[in-house]
UniProtKB/TrEMBL annotation:
Pfam families: SpoIIE. This is Protein phosphatase. It is an enzyme of class 3 (hydrolase). Keywords: Hydrolase, Magnesium, Manganese, Metal-binding, Protein phosphatase. Coiled coil: none annotated. The lineage of its organism: Eukaryota, Sar, Alveolata, Perkinsozoa, Perkinsea. GO terms for molecular function: metal ion binding; protein serine/threonine phosphatase activity. Belongs to the PP2C family. Its EC number is 3.1.3.16. PROSITE patterns: PPM_2.
Length: 320
């Protein structure tokens, strides 16, 4: 069944309400150097992201378990499940390899478009299929959440696929219009996740999909739970409003706020409040964790582009 297209516009229904109202109702596998290439997607592109990414590992870790990427069309975050450390397994290896293989799936898709001489208009790749193909080829112990947001350059529709408790938000500066995705958990602080057992954890079975029509100037945040457990939605929107012209400043300020709140033992954090709602006591304060924040601002152009842009897989690390 085709997913309905949501819209942040006066033509939509529930999604025209303020975000708070809606919510109440509802490394080792780092960059592999390669030649960049221009694609049919960008040659025809009218919508693109100006995007930036900030990653802050937990202060007690040499290397975090989050992995991510960003480009002018593709945003992604994976959060390796830390519980594997009890088995002597670093889930960061799984999440980094997952993101790298997804990036390669995107690259291969775009290269295939260049070979296509049918003259048909290029279509955005399917994030669920990219996630599925990547996960099938990983035979590591470990597991990870995964969130992908792929922008259709022709329509401005954001195609998303999510497994786990990372989340994304779309916000229109100058308005109260916003949408935040729901997290996928089977119990408190226990997210859905991908691992090498594809009969159980296949994205085809688990992934939550959506299509959202964006407009020029809309802001998108894609982040691991290190942000959402420590920063309330209203504060995310406030920072997006303030830094709407500087995506790197927005990503940096959001990540810094999440880290500082996570270390604050007297802060009634979103994580603390959610625990109370679930009748689980975790103690007052934030939740220290790896924090990954990707921010994109939708731009629009009437001119085709031959600009060469590849996906940035760098760890984008910031120590606070």
């Amino acid at each position: 069944m085709a997913a309905a297209v949501l819209a942040l516009s006066g033509r939509s229904s529930v999604f025209t309400r303020p975000l708070s109202s809606f919510l109440r109702a509802n490394g080792r596998f780092g960059i592999v150097p390669r030649a960049s290439f221009s694609t049919l997607l960008r040659k025809e592109s009218s919508y693109r992201f100006d995007s930036s990414r900030v990653v802050v590992p937990h202060r007690n870790k040499k290397r975090g378990e989050d992995a991510s990427f960003n480009s002018d069309l593709y945003l992604g975050v994976a959060d390796g499940v830390g519980g594997w450390i009890l088995e002597g397994v670093d889930s960061g290896e799984y999440s980094r390899l997952l993101m790298h293989k997804i990036c390669n799936e995107i690259r291969e898709y775009e290269k295939a478009l260049l070979r296509d001489e049918s003259g048909e208009r290029a279509r955005c790749p399917d994030p669920v299929m990219a996630m599925t193909r990547a996960a099938r080829h990983i035979d590591l112990l470990g597991s990870s959440t995964c969130l992908l947001c792929f922008l259709d350059p022709n329509t401005g529709i954001l195609n998303t696929a999510n497994v786990g408790d990372s989340a994304w938000m779309a916000f229109r500066p100058g308005t109260s219009l916003g949408y935040r995705s729901e997290e996928q958990t089977f119990a408190f602080n226990a997210p859905y996740q991908l691992d090498r057992n594809q009969r159980v954890s296949s994205p085809l079975r688990l992934a939550q999909r959506s299509k959202t029509r964006l407009e020029e100037g809309d802001m998108v945040v894609v982040a691991s739970d290190g942000l959402w457990d420590n920063v309330f939605d209203k504060d995310v929107m406030r920072i997006l409003q303030k830094e709407q012209d500087d995506v790197h400043a927005a990503a940096t300020e959001l990540a810094t706020m999440a880290v500082n709140n996570g270390r604050n033992r007297t802060y009634a954090s979103p994580f603390f409040r959610h625990a109370l709602q679930q009748r689980t006591f975790v103690g007052l304060g934030g939740k220290e964790d790896d924090v990954t924040v990707v921010v994109g601002r939708l731009t629009r152009t009437s001119e085709p582009s031959n600009e060469v842009i590849d996906i940035d897989e760098s760890e984008a690390e910031l120590r606070i």
